[in-house]
Amino acid sequence: MSPRAACLACLEQTPPALFEAALWIAVEHQPTLQPTDVLQRLNGLQQQLSQGLPNLPLQELAQPLLRRLSELDFHEDDERPLRPRAALLDQLLLRRRGQPLTLALLALELARRLGIPLQGVNFPGHFLLRVPGADHLLDPCSGRRLYTRECRELLQRHLGPTAELNASQLQPCDARSMLQRLSRNLRQLHQLDDDPLAALRDAERVLLLGTPTLQDHLARAEIYQRLDCPHGERFDLQCALLLSDDPAQHLQLSQRLRLLSASPALH
C-alpha cells in the first residue's frame, strides 16, 4: 500500500486514526521513514509526559498536558524562512519544533491515549484546540487560554484590523479538515523551498481530502506552471474560473486560459 493510500485508509477507521494518517503524509515526503520508529518515540514521550501531569479529573487535564509539552521544550518553530520539516510529525518529535497544527496533532494524539477530551479548531491563521463544553480555546504552542477577546485579537493579527470573529471559526473540525490544512501548509512550504514536485504531491492531496477552494486550484495551477505542464495548469485555471465571483479575477483567468490555448505546447 502506498503512503497516500495508507493515509486515506487511516481516515476511514472509526474513529479516524488522525496521528497515523498525518504520519503517512510525512512518509510520502520521506520514503525511508519508518512509522513504527516514530510511534516508538511517541510511546516514550507519552510515558515522560504522563508522569508530570497533576492528579485532576480528565476533563481538566488538557491545559496541563499542553503546558507539560512546553516544559519538555515543544514550541512553535521560529526558523526563518520556515522549512517543510515544521509541518512533518516525525521532525516535530526529533526537533521539538513545529507549526501550531503539528503541535496540536501531537497533543490530540497524546490526549486520546490518556483519555483527555480535546478537539481541534480550524481557526484562521493559527490552529487552536478546545475542551468540549469549555468557554475558551487553547493555544497548542503554550497552553494559553484564549477567550473571545483574545481570539478576536489573534484573528485581526493574522487577517487585519477589519476582520470580524464569528462562531463558525470557533467550532471543532474533523480529521479530514485537519489533514487538508496540513497539506496546504506543506504545499506552501515546499513552494517556498523551491520544490515544486513535493508541492504538487501536497496540492493533489488537498483536493483528495475535501472540497477544494478557488485558492487551492490557483495554487496547483502555479505549481503546474513551474513544472511546465500546461494541461494541468489549464484544468486548474478552468476550475478556478468556475469558482470565481470577482469580475476582475474572472477576466484575468480568462486571459490566461486564452494564452494557454494558443500555446504550441498543447498541440
From TrEMBL:
Record domain Protein SirB1 N-terminal: where: 37-183
Protein name: Regulator of sirC expression, contains transglutaminase-like and TPR domains
Transmembrane segment boundaries: none
InterPro entries (UniProt xref): SirB1_N
Name of a matching Pfam family: Transglut_core2
Origin: domain of life: Bacteria
UniProt family annotation: Belongs to the UPF0162 family.
